[in-house]
Amino acid sequence: MNLDELREEIETIDREIVEHIAQRTYVAETIANVKRDQGLPTTDESQEQRVMDRAGENAQRFDVDDNLVKAMFRLLIELNKVEQRESR
Ligand SMILES: C=C(O[C@@H]1C=C(C(=O)O)C=C[C@H]1O)C(=O)O
Fold first, then answer.
1. What ipTM does the predicted assembly reach?
2. In CATH, what number is assigned to the domain containing residue 79?
3. Domain span including residue 61
4. What's the gap in Å between 76 CA and the centre of ligand 1?
């Protein structure tokens, strides 16, 4: 593959990443509504820990830096929590 083709491949992957972030955000919004209806708090630290542990395991499985992957997941979680708080 030449440089342009490789960059096209990156472009497709980047779009898919954003699509997955949007899907994750949508599901988290749905979870927020369920929690609100059940009178549960926005933040669930034990669930966050499970998400972070899984992120580290998946990073190792795919041989990428687990600190980097965990930092990205920390950002995704914080993003959801800010949105959940704002919609309450
Ligand atoms: C989405 C949830 O709400 C919050 C956001 C989380 C996330 O983005 O993974 C995890 C736990 C909660 O603090 C949830 O409880 O599952």
1. 0.99
2. 1.20.59.10
3. 3-86
4. 9
